[in-house]
Design a protein that fits this description.
One of its GO terms (molecular function) is iron ion binding. The chain is mainly α and about 200 residues long. It has 2 domains: about 5-100, Cytochrome c-like domain (Cytochrome Bc1 Complex, Chain D, domain 2); about 115-195, Cytochrome Bc1 Complex, Chain D, domain 2 (Orthogonal Bundle), CATH 1.10.760.10. It is built from 10 helices and no strands. The protein has helices at about 5-25, 30-40, 60-75, 80-85, 90-100, 115-130, 130-135, 150-165, 170-180, 180-195.
Length: about 200
Amino acid sequence: MPPSSARASSILAAVTSGLVLLGSQAFAQTIEEKAQVCSACHGEAGIPQEKTTPVIWGQNEGYLYLQLRDFNKGSRKNEQMSPIAADLSKDDMKALAAYFTKLAWPNLQQPSAAKDVSTKALTAVGSIGCPSCHLDQLQGDGTTARLAGQQSAYLKQTMLAFRDGSRGNNPGMSDLMKAISPEDIDAISQYAAGLQILGGSNGR
């Protein structure tokens, strides 16, 4: 079996196991035990298994809760996340968001974007007003995602999904992504990924 297929099978097995735990044993689990299910994709040390999987360690609490809620309700869809979130209660989602936001954002060792890429990204960011929600240096706050230091491939995939409508849980973001080009999106993903987390490893 090719390495990529073996990894995919391993992740699928872990997620399937997690679904069993979250289903039949949900009431017997601590929040730490439930959080272990997430490590199958998001990583034991907060570094995701795949480049297109987001960092959730140290992410803003309100944002994490809203995404779990949207997966739970079906307004955001993902082959792995949708069935997992479907079995979570509101209290579970709040507790998981609170748990992960307290963990240190991992160092992915992503390089700073090249000067020409940064210039292109900053022009695009300014044209659609990203800092008005994601704040200075794209740190985010509350219910707005921290983009700084996030996986570049995930950022690009997400922005393109908003642009083509395949991710539909934030219509405002879709409108903004349609106002810039795919080349702008590529530059923003590289720029944001290379930014530092202010105030320490997890911004706190």
